[in-house]
């Protein structure tokens, strides 16, 4: 609507169809439509959020457990090599994510799909983080997790013109960083002296470090 109103105000349509003393009043009336745009956008966003909560949220809740069925991050050299070859997390994620999201892409406008997509990514990232906090990791497992996080982030970033998924993955990336510390390295010291702009609190960082084996 914003573009439509501005085009109408700058075009010759008003001056061609109204007398000069009427044109100012008409332009004022047309300009007043701009005040409705935030309200329309709010209603539109609320509608997309409602659809997301009703249709996508329940399916996303089961996505993580489906992806991680029979997956462990306690790996030796053989199981690590196998995980590299099979690339299970990335492949399962792409298949499961598509089953949830693909049906909506052609239904929404590009802008509304962007809102829907970002809500889905936000929810998935939170669920993934919570799930990882219930797992244990050895050295090779932490390396594998880092690869899995990067692969999923890269895939999501390639699927949308709405911006990179990098920011949404910052907490997950920081979890991976902590899990990949040398086993003898002090987590508190690293947290305080690394210079990283932490999205995790110190308490959360300690919880993550405790997952290492």
Automatic annotation (TrEMBL):
InterPro entries: COG4 (IPR048682), COG4_C (IPR048684). Pfam families: COG4_C (PF20662). Residues 2-206 form the Conserved oligomeric Golgi complex subunit 4 C-terminal domain. This is Conserved oligomeric Golgi complex subunit 4 C-terminal domain-containing protein. It comes from Sphaerobolus stellatus (strain SS14).
